[in-house]
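ERR on first pass: missing label on line 2. Operator R.T. fixed the label and resubmitted. Corrected input:
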Amino acid sequence: MGSLVDPAFVQAPEHRPKPTAPEAAVGIPLIDLSPILHSPIPAAGGAAPPAISRLLAEVEAACLEWGFFQVINHGVPSELLDNIMAASKGFFALPAEEKRQVRRDDVNPLGYYDVEHTKNVRDWKEVFDFVVEEPAVLPASAEPGADEFLPLRNRWPEYPPGFREACEKYAKAANELAFKLLELIALTLGLPANRLNGFFKDQSSFIRFNHYPPCPSPHLALGVGRHKDGGALTILAQDVGGLDVKRQSDGEWIRVKPIPNSYIINVGDIIQVWSNDKYQSAEHRVSVNSVGERFSIPFFFNPALYVMVQPLEELIDEEKRPAKYNAYNWGEFFKSRKNSNFKKLEMENTQIYHFKKAV
Ligand SMILES: O=C(O)CCC(=O)C(=O)O
Ligand SMILES: [Fe+2]
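pass 2 clean. output:
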């Protein structure tokens, strides 16, 4: 095997992974969701039974200290994850011409893609994206070219058989978990459990299949370059390790240990803004290796494209806790990120600090 990779994949020296990611003695927190597996989430935190109050304290600490945690006893049936993992592996194993039948293009950002960039450096991976809820009717302005982002139409490959069904069943179950996590997070902010739910009517959530093939130069390239997720929450399934999280306390990159039938949850930029910086969206990246391939499936839980994102008014006090961000439109943000991942651009991609208020 050669030791050279195309220069498009090569990270700047300061962003290259170390040969071995440190095994942290204490990694991201592991949270057992069994208190909410069979009992409903209370409408307000004050009235919560002790097991749920303890759970809320764990979620709050994890969001404060890491912006990342793993969950077990999450209620997503394991066969749904097994089926979607098998569908993903079956799809990526198809010949390239077959995968290109459902290739992403300038008009529709969904489907197969193998030339993604993060911060303008190419990622060592191939992906397949589909939205969790397709809009019922195409907006009138969605003629090709009118706005390249409106027709969020899924593209379903013909093979492997059962692909679409596996995707749709998993999406439904993961979406239920996403709402539970959203409600827990609202409670940890001292808000009613359902305070954030309305933003997800007409949600723009999508599921991504990531396939990271073995890489001849894992010390030069990354599966996904360092980044923060722009949406509200991410629910990630991985088969083998490779995800590195930047620890907030000292900036060290920590490898997340795979735990069977668990999900890795991270707070995205939108929760950082809603919480007015109480919670931080943590930087993360994916390292690759020269021996084995890796598969992961993130569920990006995103509000409706028309939502204006801004610090929640209940958390703002003009005197003591002024809003740290100006409002921005999620659809615009999402579109600009998607475009910069699609094409290598000369400029920096959109980040929430661009909306930070001057102090
Ligand atoms: O593959 C992974 O573990 C994470 C991928 C990721 O961070 C992303 O797609 O945003
Ligand atoms: Fe990510």
